[in-house]
Amino acid sequence: MNLTLKIWRQSGSSDKGRMVTYRVEDVSPDMSFLEMLDVLNERLILEGDDPVAFDHDCREGICGMCGMVINGVAHGEQRATTTCQLHMRHFEDGAVITIEPWRAAPFPVIKDLVVDRSSFDRIIQAGGFVSVPAGSAPDAHAVPVPKEDADAAFDAATCIGCGACVAACPNGSASLFTAAKITHLGLLPQGQPERDSRARAMVEQMDAEGFGGCTNTGECTAVCPKGIPFDTIARMNADYLRSASK
Amino acid sequence: MAVTGAVLVLFLLGHMLGNLKIFLGAGSFNHYADWLRTVGSPALPDRTLLTITEIVLVLAVALHMWAAVSLARRAAKARPVKYAAKRRSQAGGYATRTMRYGGVIIVLFVIWHLLDMTFGTVNPEGGDATPYDRMIAGFQPGRWWVGLFYLVAMVMIGLHLRHGLWSAFQSLGLTRRPRVRNALRAGAAVVSAVLVVGFVAAPVCIMIGVVK
Q1: Per-residue CA distances from B160 to B102, B104, B184 (Å)
Q2: Domain of A227: which CATH number?
Q3: Which family is this protein grouped under (chain A) (predicted)?
């Protein structure tokens, strides 16, 4: 496959940045999207150019490090897939592919396609934890949890914090990320003592970071590589309203 | 957004039911309009219900617009650098994308509607005619462009409510369980459709001459 890539290049946070066009030839359809970028970078290094910086770690879709907006869609158009698990067979030979970093004020660009997602860490630090000594893994039947709650909590807990929800949201809101943690802990017995203060602290931190407000467009859950359900945002709103009414 | 929107939807339901009285004839429609002015009389002064409604509606509209503008401004601040590629919607909610410009169209429509049916400024019969005569005169086939504007505005309101109603349930945290969520989502679509059909019925019937 031969491709034309239009990639966002930005040497640092003070650089204005620009789109640069590259040709990549002889790409195998079996390569992942990141491997295709590796091919480009090997060539750039040999030619003495600066390789395209992008975040990645496990490359098996579970760590949440990779992520870029491909042709205007976070992680590309393949549903429930991280960029590292997106394969070139989903693109056509001769395609022109636009590659951009996550765009949000609380996600400043560090270099090229790498953004600083510390704002997510601060949202978690604000309340995304339980303060009880959890100890080692308890027996499965020691604390009974209704099956429906256990399933919903687990679905929410699969969030890998990649930030695609923010990138896709027309409002630049971090509601799905924040709601996933609030739902995960709020549905389980261990999360009950801090349920109200958690919702309030995490929502306030999310707003303080400069994320936009949720208008329920559903773009977040559509691009989420883990398919975090939209219902989690309703649960966050309910917990937040509950804490505000106390 | 959710609370002020709910107030406006409740008003629209009442307004639509009142409009349908036009099918019961001039006497019934004018009597209903008169009743709205004199309800509670003589214990309450004239226009008590109307004045309360007007105050609540003006407040609700103002707060609704203020919330919408704040959300749009926060969104603009949260994404100072735009995407170069055209952002392609993955959620497929057409109604969702009409909310902001649709809201502006609805405001313009409401201004015209008040000038037409309440104050009679732009109505051929003027403000002194009975409500029934104003309604009939306003939608004569010769003024087809007024009818068309009404139809477009009603479709905009329908789309606005289809997303708005469901979105209000979500914002108030009522859609936590899939079963409830699906029911509320369907309910939002049904209420929006009923309101559009109910509001469009009278103008269309006047335009095609069924109601004279």
Answers
A1: 7, 11, 16
A2: 1.10.1060.10
A3: Belongs to the succinate dehydrogenase/fumarate reductase iron-sulfur protein family.
